């Protein structure tokens, strides 16, 4: 993680907003580690929201995730040199979603391959 440009965080759509199911304890640990090894280069957190259906708009999921992330950030004890640092000083956020694996399998495979392509491209910086 100290050398990663991007950290993919897999989260189930139905877990967004849940305290433990959404990986909040893990995210808090990640934030604490990043604060200790701070590199001036921001880490991109790419949240891959799994099994998204058309019932919940993506912008609502992103809004809820951003609210949760800010809350987690505020709860992290920061070293004195970063006491006033904002979440955006350390992280760039990106969000994407994948359709339900069983109910939209072909579309899931297609979109998962497209996501893979973002990282398999040798020209990607």
Automatic annotation (TrEMBL):
GO terms for molecular function: GTP binding; GTPase activity. It comes from the Eukaryota. InterPro entries: G_GB1_RHD3_dom, P-loop_NTPase, RHD3/Sey1. One of its GO terms (cellular component) is endoplasmic reticulum. Pfam families: RHD3_GTPase. Residues 1-125 form the GB1/RHD3-type G domain. The keyword Metal-binding does not apply. GO terms for biological process: endoplasmic reticulum membrane fusion. SUPFAM superfamilies: P-loop containing nucleoside triphosphate hydrolases. Keywords: Endoplasmic reticulum, GTP-binding, Hydrolase, Membrane, Nucleotide-binding. Belongs to the TRAFAC class dynamin-like GTPase superfamily. GB1/RHD3 GTPase family. This is GB1/RHD3-type G domain-containing protein. It comes from Micromonas pusilla.
């Amino acid at each position: 993680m100290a050398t990663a440009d991007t950290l993919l965080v897999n989260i189930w759509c139905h877990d967004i907003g849940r305290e433990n199911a959404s990986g909040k304890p893990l995210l808090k640990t990640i934030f604490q580690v990043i604060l200790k090894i701070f590199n001036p280069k921001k880490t991109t957190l790419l949240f891959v929201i799994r099994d998204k259906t058309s019932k919940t708009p993506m912008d609502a999921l992103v809004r809820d995730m951003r609210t949760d992330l800010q809350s987690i950030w505020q709860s992290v004890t920061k070293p004195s040199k970063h006491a006033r640092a904002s979440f955006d000083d350390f992280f760039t956020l990106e969000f994407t979603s994948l359709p339900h694996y069983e109910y939209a399998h072909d579309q899931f495979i297609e979109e998962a391959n497209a996501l893979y392509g973002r990282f398999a491209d040798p020209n990607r910086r």
